[in-house]
Amino acid sequence: MKITTKTAHFTSPLYLESGRILEPYDIKYETYGELNEKKDNVILVCHALSGSHHAAGFYEGDKKAGWWDALIGDGKAIDTKKYFVICTNTIGSCFGSTGPMSPQYPSEEPYRLQFPVITIKDMVKAQKQLLSSLGIHTLHTIIGGSMGGMQALQFAIEYPHFAKNIIALATTYATRPWAIAFNKVAMEAIRRDPRFKNGNYAPDDFKEHGLDGLAIGRIAGHISYLSPASMEKKFGRAYVETDGLFELFGRYEVERYMEYNTNNFAKIFDPLSYLYIIKAINTYNLARGHGSLYDAINRIEATINLISFKGDMLFFPQEMEHIAKMLKRVNKKYSYHEIDSDYGHDAFLVEIEKFDFLIKEMLEAVE
Fold first, then answer.
1. In terms of pTM, does the model score above 0.85?
2. What DSSP assignment string belongs to 25-67?
3. Domains of the chain from N-terminus onward
4. Distance CA 259, CA 249 (A)
5. Is the N end or the C end of the chain the one with fewer CB atoms within 10 Å?
């Protein structure tokens, strides 16, 4: 599988939903496979909150593949021998695209809290600009899970004739209070950490030890990505063997798991980016700017394929089922599948074998 990683630089202004302007800006992106002569084999992959442009394959020296490697590659469901796959890092993120720690032109000082609030619609608009700059004006498919699914659905509404096919997994039509509440834990934990310094930290301040506030906030997020059944199956009531049961800070295995994963995350993800991205997730609402959800969905021309997961405790299957009912109501082409899973929200990243065959069928149906 051919992997190419690039950064596109734009000097033209990006007009944001808030009324502010981002200028100039960069988008880092990765491609897999080859673009055919007709340019009709392009699949755009949209990442979730903590994801990046590195969706598949290995970088030299890496032990861990891209976040959707089980789905993307030669001979896999998203077959890179057949399709030209693009995954961009969203604006606001911290893996190469312009975000709050990027220099604020013409200064070399980072934006920090002067960075504009961005929305899912802004992320989509920036990606559309990138694709246009590459001479790609129509897409075979747009696919994503969680926040990536939000982007896929937003594309379908904002640019109805841009993609023939949309595949959205483990997502919703508007972020509900339950999910916003989990994000609030992260926001307050970061803001109240003294080392956060109201965003005035140095770019490398947390590379060695991470930011405790981000680690704590990520624990809340991680709980929402799992489910009671998956935690019971994975950990039960197992206790860390080296910790005493009657030590105050002795840990159950589930606690050690949370510590390990979130502490590592806090060393590699920028806390300001985390704040800006969860704000984008919180403000996500397909109906905004279109009068109602009915009016928004009525704009859709692509085939919409929805995949939910039974054990998802962040974006419940009922939320995706509601989208399906709306699509049926306005006579749009769609499919809806609820996957029998007790893993939780992260099933779209982990239990690929439960739905990869569906993805393949959805892609082939466009031929």
1. yes
2. EEEEEEEES---TTS--EEEEE--TT--S--SS--TT-SS--T
3. 3-174+286-364 (3.40.50.1820), 179-279 (1.10.1740.110)
4. 12
5. C
